[in-house]
Amino acid sequence: MKINASFKDKRGQIFDIFVNSPKDHCALITSKKGAVRGNHFHKKSTQFTFILNGKFKFYKAKVNKKGQIVEKVRRKIVTKNEFIVHPPYEAHTFVAVSKNTTILAFACGKRGGSYYEDDTFRLKKKLNNKSKFL
Questions:
Q1: With contact defined as beta carbons under 8 Å apart, do 15 and 82 qualify?
Q2: Rounded distance between C-alpha atoms, residue 3 and residue 21, angstroms
Q3: CA angle, 82 then 38 then 36, to 5°
Q4: What is the distance between the alpha carbons of residues 130 and 118, in angstroms, rounded to a whole number?
Q5: Structural contact between residues 110 and 38, judged by C-beta atoms closer than 8 angstroms
Q6: Among 39, 133, 125, 19, which residue's Cα sits nearest to residue 86?
Q7: Which is nearest to 52 in space by CA: 24, 26, 19?
Q8: Which of 104, 111, 106 is nearest to 42 (CA)?
Q9: What is the pLDDT along the chain (134 residues), one digit of tens a residue?
């Protein structure tokens, strides 16, 4: 979903990404054109992604506890101000289509610092253009 400005005047704009919902982790992620991010899922954490700039091919699909894809993969192009929620057991992948792309990734659950990999499960079968689409 696109997020519209909550406030706007001659100085600029304010975008409310979260209201009354603290998060456990936030990361700023930059990617060069062609870079692949994700190809994983979380069993306990919900992840939120906000596109700051650039364009990505975004892939997602539900997976089971073993990380096997259990539905056809969905693909869409996401751009600036797009907000995406990744619930547990939803595999997700971003491929940067434009150069100098930037996202903010937020999480509910242990996801930052030394906990980064504790709830990150890599996919054996990657989500990409060769996936079967819905």
A1: no
A2: 16
A3: 85
A4: 29
A5: no
A6: 39
A7: 26
A8: 111
A9: 888 888 898 978 888 887 767 777 888 899 999 999 999 999 998 999 999 999 999 999 999 999 999 999 999 999 999 999 999 999 999 999 999 899 999 888 766 666 767 888 999 888 887 666 54
Amino acid at 63: V
**Distance (Å, whole) CA 128 – CA 60:** 9
- Of 8, 59, 53, 52, the C-alpha closest to 38 is 59
The DSSP result for 66-108, as a single string, is T--B-S-BEEEEEETTBEEEE-TTEEEEEEE-SSSEEEEEEEE
Distant-in-sequence, close-in-space partners of 92: CB < 8 Å, separation ≥ 6: 38, 40, 41, 47, 49, 58, 59, 60, 84, 86, 127
Place of tokens 């903010």: 104
DSSP at 114: G
